[in-house]
Amino acid sequence: MGEPRWLDEREAHVWRAFLALQRELTGALERGLVRDSGLSNADYSLLVPLSEAPDGLLRARELGMRVGWERSRLSHQVKRMEKRGLVVREECAEDARGSMVRLTPAGRAAIGAAAPGHVDSVRRYLFDVLSREELDVLGRAFDRVLARIAADDDEADPTR
Amino acid sequence: MGEPRWLDEREAHVWRAFLALQRELTGALERGLVRDSGLSNADYSLLVPLSEAPDGLLRARELGMRVGWERSRLSHQVKRMEKRGLVVREECAEDARGSMVRLTPAGRAAIGAAAPGHVDSVRRYLFDVLSREELDVLGRAFDRVLARIAADDDEADPTR
DNA sequence: ATTACTTTGGTGACGCATCAACAATGGAGG
DNA sequence: CCTCCATTGTTGATGCGTCACCAAAGTAAT
């Protein structure tokens, strides 16, 4: 074991800034989305891949993989969205276990109304204040961290 | 109005990587914390400033400001933690409206047991794969985005 | 075909987060 | 003092996210 290595000043600063960024940016985007279109971040996350799919139709499993969610989370969210008329669940022809999620006209209208403002917000908060060089550094850094986490997960459960 | 400016390829990549990073990193840290010490991220967030305060005692308002939470969120979380014996609420002598939050011995033991492993996780996932130059870029970029969000909030409600 | 295992999805319970509403105190100005 | 307002904190309702568990259907081995 030995003495744990605490974060040095530079690391602590980046870490606390990351936590604050997560909190503030996610919060600001969510508030804007709710205010302008009545959609939550979770709604928006699902509406994007659905709106890009042919006929606004996706297998639940496929939708979950595209947004990186587990089955349970997806199921709960789809249920809430179905109750509000944004999507409908349908049975899957090829695989009787499966479930299809289809965008309704109301859902398509909602994402269409919300997207421009949301993208504007992301641009205003994030990309307007970052240089092209910084974007490159961020992109590479984020990818490396993601690869590290994925590798660590594999080590914990190689079968997945 | 006019046509919305969508994200270019570089921006879209960074944005999706950021969303994935948020999801995966937060999730991995939370799972490790729960597995190793039975604490959630929310618990940990509050235990850190409390453990650094004299006598493990902080005014609720002060605690909320240190972690960047609103009053309601803090109140709910403190209630849950009090039920598990990690903290206790006490009345505030100087201001009868106020409420003090005090770390219990069990709470201090919990953060002491959890912190080394948690810091190790942050280091392993994040700082082990980032260079010193990247840290500098990240720190400056994050700060600039935070300043932008804060400025935008002020514009929306200058009284705050 | 039967058994065993995996994949897919749903459900209930509980913790977390936000919002609106409320209560109580503190403080400033008449 | 008293009125008005801001500050501090709590609560209940609701949405979000995870976990443990279950059920049904596919799939592979015997």
Automatic annotation (TrEMBL), chains A, B:
Q: Name one Pfam family in it.
A: MarR_2
Give start and end of each HTH marR-type domain: 11-147
Gene Ontology annotations of biological process type: response to stress
The cross-references to InterPro entries, in alphabetical order and at most eight, read: HTH_MarR-typ, MarR/SlyA-like, WH-like_DNA-bd_sf, WH_DNA-bd_sf
Task: Name the PROSITE patterns for this protein.
Answer: HTH_MARR_2
**Protein name (database record):** MarR family transcriptional regulator
What Gene Ontology terms describe what this protein does at the molecular function level?
A: DNA-binding transcription factor activity
PANTHER family, from UniProt?
Answer: MARR FAMILY REGULATORY PROTEIN, TRANSCRIPTIONAL REGULATOR, MARR FAMILY
